[in-house]
Structure formats: structure tokens, C-alpha cells
Amino acid sequence: MQYKILASDYDNTLVPFGEGKPRQKVVKAIKKLQAAGGRFVLSTGRAYPCVNLKGQLGGIRFDYAITCNGACVVDREGRIVAEHPLTAEEMYALVDFCEDYNYPLQFNFRDACYAYCEYEYLHRGYRQMNSIGLDCMDGEDQDRHLIDMPHAAFAAVPPEHVADFAAKYGHLGLHWMQVGAQNADGLCYYDIVRGGMDKGVGLADLCEKMGLTLADAVAAGDSANDVAMLKAAGLGCCMANGTPDAKAAADRIIGDVREDGLADLIEELWFDGPRAEPSGRDLGSPWDKIESAGGQ
């Protein structure tokens, strides 16, 4: 078996956008891969508490998870394998900026996501966008970081004001990644991690801890925050429904998420099935319809 692990993005790679869990063909393929000795790695912008919700993975148990866009890697029990948490200075800069403008801000800790600014706005947004329990805790007392530091932040900011943050705090080098489209309030959602952090770093950290090389890894994704992972892996595969930058970063294009492209890839690489090719049918782009911060 040439490849040892499969690292997969969640939204629009493992699960079609708007659906609550992976389809059965994909679930069966991943379980078959694991039974044959392969390791399944979930790779996402979300924090660990947000990827371990009951029913969200349709019966799949990941072996490892690259969370917070590479800033925290955990095993299936939630034990940290590698981490790159935010510093106190980085946290304080984000809080200072968001409090000045009343922008929603949450920090992703290992036990839960805590809203430090505008909890009600974030809580209401989570309730509107899903039915699987994804939410944040009220952290407006701003003391959760006295226990340990968060791995990432999530903020809702007008895109033109991201440059204002950079003008004041650019020396910190924080990495802002836009998630989804601008909403009706004129805000864009951003995942924020330390400079240099991305899913490719998380995959490299995991391979090192497992005693593997990046050449042993297959990565599958569909969007901008998957680009570094697709480039880092021994084989980077972009879904046919992927964005142009993700397609350009990949070694090859596979089937659309709504055609169970990930399942076909597993059959090809691990079980000598037919080559996993896109069908060529125009299924439209779900990215045109994204209105929330769900795409991670």
C-alpha cells in the first residue's frame, strides 16, 4: 500500500454543503480503508469540540484530526499530538480591536469555543445555521485563557477593516482566512491563527509524530484553506466542485462531493479500483450559495 493516511477536509469534501453528515458510500469507504490499516485524518478549520459532535460524522471515527487550520492536531480521544496556540499578546490585540468596533470574536479552546465579544450575535448565528449542536460558550468574562491558550480565533469583521487591524497589529503576523461570503450585516467571517499556520503545517506535524513522511499522505480538499495541505501531501486531490486556487494546488482533480468523489478515490488508491475521475457533469457550485461560516 503506497499511502498510509488520508487527510480530508470536512465541508464540500467529506460532506456536501447543506447536508448534516457524510453519505453512506463515503462512510463505508472510510471504514473499509481503516479496516485495511489506513488512517483517516479529518482536517478542518473548526476546533476539536466542533468536530466531535454526535452524529456529525455519520459513524466515522477519525484516527486523528487536524483542527483550527493546522494549529492543533489531536488523536481520536482528543489528546493533543501537536499544537501552536495563540499568544497572550495576539489574543489581547484581537480583543482590543473587536471591542473598539463591537465585532463578534470567539476563541477556540480545547474544550469549547468561547465568545469574548458579542456572544449573542454568534450564538444566534450558530442556532440559525445548523441543527447538530454547533455553538459557542459565553466567554465575555474574558478569563478562559487563564487556564490555557486558544489555538485559533473566529471573528466577524467588514473586509475593509481587516486592513485596519493589519495597520495597527501587523507586526504580530496573524493569518486571517476568510470563510464564506459577506453577510447581510456587511460582515465577513474569518478564521485567525498564528502566522505560518495552515493545514499543511498540521499534516507535517502529524506525519512527524507518526514516523511517516508527507509522501505517505493523501490529502483531499476543495477551497483556499486546503491549498497548503494539497501542496504538502504526497498526493493532493481537489474535488471537482473545488475553487480555482485549490484546483491549481492539487496534483489531480477527483469527483464532485455530490458524486461521492472521496469514496471513489479510496477505492482506487487502497483497493485497486478504477481511477477516480470527475464525471464532467455540471452540478453547479455550492460556493455560490454560502451565506454562513460553515465552509471549513
TrEMBL record:
Gene Ontology CC entries for this record = cytosol
Q: Mind listing the UniProt keywords for this protein, alphabetically?
A: Hydrolase
Read off the SUPFAM superfamilies from this record.
HAD-like (SSF56784)
Please, which domain of life does this record's source organism belong to? Answer: Bacteria
Entry EC number(s): 3.1.3.-
Region of interest called Disordered, as start-end residue ranges on this chain: 275-296
Q: Which residues form the signal peptide?
A: none
Q: Which InterPro entries has this protein been placed in?
A: HAD-like_sf (IPR036412), HAD_sf (IPR023214)
Q: Name one GO molecular function term.
A: phosphatase activity
Q: Name one Pfam family in it.
A: Hydrolase_3
Entry protein name: HAD family hydrolase
Species per Swiss-Prot/TrEMBL record:
Faecalibacterium taiwanense
User: What lineage, starting at the top, does this entry show?
Assistant: Bacteria, Bacillati, Bacillota, Clostridia, Eubacteriales
